[in-house]
Amino acid sequence: PTPGAYDDTDTDADPLAPALPVLTTTEEIHRAVIQNGVQQAVFADGPAGTAGTDADRAPLVALFHEYGCATWFVGGGAGRGPMAQHVWGFTCRRVDPPTARRGIRVKRLLDIAVAGPVLVAISPVLLACALAVRFLDGPGVLFRQERVGQHGRPFTLLKFRTLRPADDHEAATRWSVANDRRMSPVGHILRRTSMDELPQIWNVLRGDMSLVGPRPERPFFVANFSKTHPGYAARHRMPVGITGLAQVNGLRGDTSIEDRSRFDNHYIDHWSLWQDVCIIIRTALSLVRPAGS
After folding, report:
1. Same domain for 199 and 281?
2. Average pLDDT of the segment spanning 148-176
3. Would 175 be classed as within a structural domain?
4. Residue 91 buriedness (CB in 10 A; 0-12 / 13-18 / 19+)
């Protein structure tokens, strides 16, 4: 389904036209791509004299390609040659997003090189945490929850269970349970030391997450924050992470979403492998004075 049409001229809508939402800003496009899982975008030439130039379209094309969307150009000189593609007689041309930057591939190699040995090294700690949850809090050691990853793709995030939610709705829509009285002593310890996050190393090895990146959030909050906080949707240009620039600067738990978005986008815009290494080291050092999440 088409989530909307982009028109930067902001003209009055034709009263006889279908009720299709018109996106007039780049931020609205970010939100639409994330919320609707857009995979293809179509650029169609308008009436004579209104078709945009390649230079006009370049920023939007780059935006869609950042999210892994293919782009189609319909009309005008979109396709040439005897076997050009067409849509009901209108020539068209498909442009797929460029392959991942070499730096992102190196980032993935870093994730595997660090997460694999760490998972083996901390296996006794994982076992101890699992046994503590099982025998002190009952069955159901792992807590599984849907989160939004890179390009808006959902995945199942793993944690050690620190509290059993009343139902699926509470799990999906309650912002924080840090001071919930239902949390057991072992749950408080796991959250205060951030050991409840350790199973996410498996998410890293699976490729759902990276060691460093914007923290993933639940779909309910992604939809809300994308509407109310400029730049929030743009965080999903990069793989989500266990830790990030926002977290090592104290923005964890119930802290400003606007500030987190700013830090996350700064991290993405200035990404380097060295920055990832520094954030990993700062995160490890912070564990000696845990503050919980």
Report:
1. yes
2. 84
3. yes
4. middle
Domain of residue 78 covers 5-95
The two structure tokens encoding residue 183: 């949390």
**Res 76: pLDDT:** 63
Calculate mean pLDDT across residues 189-211: 93
Catalogue the long-range contacts made by 278-281 (C-beta closer than 8 Å, 24 or more residues apart): 279/212, 279/243, 279/244, 279/245, 279/248, 280/114, 280/211, 280/212, 280/243
pLDDT confidence of residue 171: 76
Whether residue 50 has pLDDT greater than 60? no
User: Which domain-ending residue is among 48, 67, 95?
Assistant: 95
Residues 79 and 158 in one domain: no
**How confident is the model over 76-92, as pLDDT tens digits?**
655 555 556 777 777 88
What pLDDT, on the 0 to 100 scale, is given for residue 19?
64
Number of independent structural domains in the chain: 2
